[in-house]
């Protein structure tokens, strides 16, 4: 009789261990899914806010300011590229962008994307008509603790990214 009782107890412990492992596994997957969805929404919100802010700023010639956005954990840099250059300046920019092959590929495909998030993920998006003040006509702002900050100025019909 004791042997049956011991086998039953071992069986109960084994089933309990399996249930606990499954709860942890699916709990971890659920939390990871929520975190991924949160980071996706942060990145999308940054893109939408940046486009709206740049559109607003472009209408106010000479107005300048520092722009701060939550960028999430996917990105290490947010880069801006001047797409409206003469042939010499374009050559200078493209030579400098050789360290950023995904950005270079994107702009040589004649897309209108002029802002890029790089890091764990790569995303290209359009923030409206944009100029970059300094040579080599692109500027990358570092993402620190999930936040990015840069200076921009209204140019009347475009936004000028200030290389500070």
What would you note in describing this structure?
It contains 3 helices and 8 strands; from the N terminus they run αββααββββββ. By secondary structure, the chain is of the alpha+beta class. The chain is elongated and about 90 Å long. Strands 1, 2, 3, 4, 5, 6, 7 and 8 form an 8-stranded mixed β-sheet that branches. It has one domain. The protein has helices at residues 2-58, 87-96, 101-108; strands at 64-70, 75-81, 115-119, 123-125, 130-132, 138-144, 147-154, 159-162.
The percentage of residues in β strands lies in: 25-35%
Rg from Cα? 25 Å
Mean pLDDT: 83
What percent of the residues sit in helical stretches (DSSP H or I)?
A: 40-55%
| Count of separate structural domains | 1
Order of helices and strands: HEEHHEEEEEE
* Poorly predicted regions: none
Structural class: alpha+beta
Shape: elongated
* Total E-strand runs: 8
By oligomeric state, this entry counts as single chain
Largest sheet: 8 strands, mixed
Number of helices: 3
Through-space gap between termini: 82 Å
Brief rundown of the structure:
This protein has 164 residues and is an alpha+beta fold.
Distinctive features:
164 residues, alpha+beta, 8-stranded mixed beta sheet, 8 strands, 27% strand
